[in-house]
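Lecture 7, part B: from sequences to assemblies.

Below are the input chains for today's worked example.
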Amino acid sequence: MKRLALLALCCLPAAAQELRSGFEDMARETQALQREDATNPAMLWVQEGEALWSSPAGANAQSCASCHGAAETSMRGVAARYPAWDEASAAPTDLAGRIAQCRTERQGAPPLERESPGLLALSAYVGLQSRGVAISPPADPRLAPAMSQGAALYAERRGQLDLSCAQCHDDNAGRRLAGSTIPQAHPTGYPLYRLEWQGLGSLQRRLRGCMTGVRAEPFRYGAPEYIAIEAFLMGRATGMAMETPAVRP
Amino acid sequence: MTTPRRLLLVAAPALLLAPAIAHATPDAMAAALREFTGGAEVRRGRVAMDISPLVENGNTVPLSVIVDSPMTEDDHVRAIAIFNERNPQPHVITAHYSARSGQALLATHIRLATSQNLLAVAALSGGTFWSDSAQVVVTLAACLEG
Amino acid sequence: MARVLINIPREIRAGETIAIRTLIQHAMESGYRPGADGNVVPRDILRRFTARFDDEVVFAAEFSPAIAANPFLSFTMNVVAGGTLTLRWEGDNGFDQTETRRITVA
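Predicted structure of the full complex, as structure tokens:
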């Protein structure tokens, strides 16, 4: 009952509004950076990811391509349906988690830490293969608990400022906060190049920023709480087009 | 429920922690300009600088400059320099051209520490200098978060 | 080696002026930014870019710390005949990287 109430609280305003990517809230000049691959700095990471995709690593000197072939076909649409259920850990995992797992478990290569240049590069390259694909979370009942945990985390007030995600991103989306417009918080573009970071970062890094912004203690990278919020945000953005690798201010 | 207005007032300082940084002055910019022109007169015109008047993040600001010139051996742009008033240093970039450039065009991404004036100056092969200026308002300044 | 992206038009006619767009992965550490420990992070920037077509310099630029991280630069060049475009970035701490691209005309 309590959970239902929370769900209703957070999802209604978003559903009532038209789904709007953070791209729409950006200045024309920032949009132009994203639109043109030749000016989008994130493409430097994509290039790195493309090189990693076909470089042999691990005991059997296999590359991602040895098993998956051309990413353009094998990875098309994959990013649009994560987080997904992971049989091995019997828990949901996000795309970066899946890639990191494939690298250690299947490729037998040294692990790639969260937010490491290599994992960001591979995530950007795999993510690019879904650019323009509509977000479509898997209809897997095993993901339901994570989705509702994510919804609850989104609606929960936190930090010294005692604010929930929903208070900013549902109740005040479209309003200005200091210099920036509060977006609806859609996960369409990750990993993305944030001008503020002067580099590429994951959705979890973005969430971390929003949590420290309200002076709340952020979760550790890869924590189930982040995966749950990611699952909730992807569900909330169902049907929106993937933009990876996007640019944000 | 927190009212939107109150919410924004409380949240703003937490999301925006700007350390104070040293910056150049209009005098420093004038000195850097003199170094480029050797003190020659700089006229307005022939140079068109394109930069957004309202910048949402000073870390990466697209800027382009184009100079009206036939770009022949006899009459071309030798160099374009960009200066600013209030970054830590007045100089941004100097680009060098020849008749082979075909066009006197410069496009890059720059940093702006705060709202300020920018100046683009072109040095022509005939020894004259031309300029354009722009006033830019920056909502989020450059170089904060690591 | 830093990652570099060089965008050159696919089809070039003899006599045409083409625009070349470049991006290079570099932090452009300004030398004015305080690090996590409160001390200023030492400057580490790219200082100079040179574009040669065969042996002729067609464009060059000097950067100050006000050039954004992962520098983007676009310039033009008149192409009379095919040749080799050589792009070089030089910077602090011995940074020196050269990339070459064949340019063919239709």
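Note for the exam: The two ends of chain C are 32 Å apart (CA to CA). Keep this in mind when comparing with the next example.
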